[in-house]
């Protein structure tokens, strides 16, 4: 027996042992991967990963002292007879009617208490559970203590429910013993639908050629060799192939030794989950390509995106209105006081856009201004909207370049995810931008005060002259006007005040024009900064989140792969 066990261990696993802690870390890495890519990758591509995480968590939480072995085979392969022969008791019904096995039967070696939760998880009905050992066995069955042997329904049954039950349990058991018979060992359904799908689970797969008693002794090696050839073609090279017969106890020795070795190692469950993890990681690997390019979105993509968003936000119109508003307000503050009232009749260009006007005089007006969040900038044209779409697409194309499919689509979806919020966000950004016109410059106040001074001088001179004319008209003694040179002082005050007011206004005009251009550039710079903030928050940052998830998912998948 020792030689058989040694050959089995070498053929089946190559003495490769699975560290439970490493396996737990691999499953945790797959769980992190799922959490990171959730919402970015199609759900159907993540189904096996979800199944692995759930199945591994459940199986590792259950008894590790038990090894679940399933006998799987087609109708007439004799697996139920083999099940009874291994148990040395007739537990599973055997008959000529097909299919014979319609439900799963379980036989437990050893105390059943630890296996109850495991069988509940497997879904084996209580009435189909049997305990093999008894006091009459003494230590005859001690080597199989911890074995949970299942007799599955026929996977080629005409009853679809039987096949669904087989498929479900094949995904849960620790080791599968495929039972084939000399007549149908090469059946296409067996190899293409089942055996070939187990190529990643060679460590927990055994194939037995049953009913060898029906073959001439000289034919058994030839059939085993042909079965070995078929298994190698299925990707199951190295999987043990044993000859059995339910009617010959000696023909079960190798299979019993195999089961004893498996139960004794307590590794089958870990190897099965490790194989499942390998399959999941291999399926997920094509979804993850090379590392993303360094993040240069701010430098490469933000300027063009900002230009496009500035167009739909009405920044050119606001900038133009800012320049005109500067001229309008400067002229109103530095112009001749006698015509300022006329200027007030003209609407302020920024006020017409519902943008901040001059500094409010009262707290109530300040509060009303702060609550204004909607502007009246011109609606964007179709060309401007199209420019935004193209700019967003360029951002997504640049960020998703080189990523594995379907990540470029995920990046593009992230770039478009907040487009519906852009109009309100841009409107709020423009409305909330300080255009630099909330406070009057000091020189406006100084020039305005000077204008009032010369205007008052002109008014004083005019009043002085009028008073003098009134006295003469009433026949009263005329006033003796002070003279400045040869000109009366009142006349000099009147004419000088008028001329100085016009001269000051003319001198202030080029300064106002220069200030208006500076105000235009300042407003454009501040508005573009605000629009760039919207571009980052609504387009760039969602893309960065996807790229960050991609990079962390690559690391998680590498961690899941590292324990192989």
Automatic annotation (TrEMBL):
Region Disordered, residue ranges: 351-382
Pfam families, per the entry: MMR_HSR1
SUPFAM superfamilies in the record: P-loop containing nucleoside triphosphate hydrolases
Keywords assigned: Membrane, Transmembrane, Transmembrane helix
Cited InterPro entries: GTP-bd (IPR006073), GTPase_Era-like (IPR005662), P-loop_NTPase (IPR027417)
Source organism superkingdom: Bacteria
Transmembrane regions listed in the UniProt entry: 446-471, 491-516
Composition-biased stretches (Polar residues): 369-378
Occurrences of domain G (ranges): 69-210
Keyword Oxidoreductase listed: no
Official protein name in the record: GTPase
Organism of provenance: Plantactinospora siamensis
Taxonomic path: Bacteria, Bacillati, Actinomycetota, Actinomycetes, Micromonosporales
């Amino acid at each position: 027996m020792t030689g058989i066990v040694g050959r089995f261990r070498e053929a089946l696993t190559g003495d490769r042992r699975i560290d439970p802690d490493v396996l737990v870390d691999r499953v945790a890495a797959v769980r992190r991967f799922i959490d990171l890519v959730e919402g970015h990758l199609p759900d159907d591509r993540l189904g096996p990963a979800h199944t692995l995480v759930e199945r591994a968590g459940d199986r590792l939480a259950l008894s590790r002292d038990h090894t679940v072995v399933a006998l799987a085979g087609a109708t007439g392969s004799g697996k139920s007879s083999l099940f009874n022969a291994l148990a040395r008791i007739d537990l599973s019904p055997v008959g000529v009617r097909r299919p014979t096995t319609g439900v799963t039967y379980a036989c437990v070696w050893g105390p059943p208490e630890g296996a109850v939760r495991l069988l509940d998880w497997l879904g084996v009905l209580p009435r189909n559970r049997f305990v093999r050992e008894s006091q009459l066995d003494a230590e005859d069955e001690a080597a199989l203590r911890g074995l949970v042997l299942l007799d599955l329904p026929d996977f080629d049954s005409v009853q679809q429910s039987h096949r669904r039950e087989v498929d479900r349990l094949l995904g849960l058991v620790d080791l599968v013993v495929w039972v084939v018979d000399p007549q149908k060992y090469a059946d296409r359904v067996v190899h293409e639908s089942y055996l070939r799908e187990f190529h990643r689970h060679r460590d927990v797969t055994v194939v037995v050629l049953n009913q060898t008693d029906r073959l001439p002794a000289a034919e058994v090696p030839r059939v085993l060799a042909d079965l070995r050839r078929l298994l190698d073609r299925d990707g199951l090279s190295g999987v043990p192939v044993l000859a059995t017969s339910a009617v010959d106890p000696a023909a079960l020795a190798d299979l019993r030794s195999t089961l004893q070795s498996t139960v004794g190692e307590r590794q089958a469950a870990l190897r099965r989950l490790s194989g499942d993890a390998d399959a999941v990681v291999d399926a997920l690997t094509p979804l993850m390509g090379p590392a993303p390019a360094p993040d240069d979105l701010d430098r490469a993509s933000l300027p063009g995106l900002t230009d496009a968003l500035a167009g739909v936000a009405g920044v050119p119109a606001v900038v133009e209105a800012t320049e005109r508003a500067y001229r309008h307000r400067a002229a109103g503050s530095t112009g001749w006081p006698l015509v300022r009232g006329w200027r007030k009749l003209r609407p302020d260009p920024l006020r017409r856009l519902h943008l901040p006007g001059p500094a409010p005089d009262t707290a109530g007006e300040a509060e009303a201004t702060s609550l204004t969040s909607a502007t009246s900038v011109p609606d964007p044209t179709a060309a401007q909207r199209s420019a935004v779409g193209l700019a967003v697409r360029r951002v997504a194309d640049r960020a998703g370049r080189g990523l594995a499919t379907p990540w470029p689509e995920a990046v593009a979806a992230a770039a478009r995810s907040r487009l519906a919020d852009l109009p309100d966000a841009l409107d709020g950004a423009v409305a909330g931008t300080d255009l630099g016109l909330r406070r009057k410059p000091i020189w406006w106040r100084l020039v305005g005060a000077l204008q009032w001074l010369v205007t008052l001088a002109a008014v004083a001179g005019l009043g002085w002259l009028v008073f003098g004319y009134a006295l003469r008209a009433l026949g009263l003694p005329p006033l003796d006007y002070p003279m400045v040179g040869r000109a009366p002082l009142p006349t000099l005050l009147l004419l000088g005040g008028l001329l100085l007011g016009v001269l000051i206004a003319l001198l202030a005009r080029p300064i106002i024009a220069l200030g208006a251009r500076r105000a235009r550039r300042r407003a454009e710079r501040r508005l573009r900064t605000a629009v760039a903030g919207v571009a980052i928050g609504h387009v760039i940052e969602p893309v960065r989140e996807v790229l960050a998830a991609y990079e962390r998912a690559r690391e998680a998948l590498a961690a899941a792969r590292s324990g192989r």
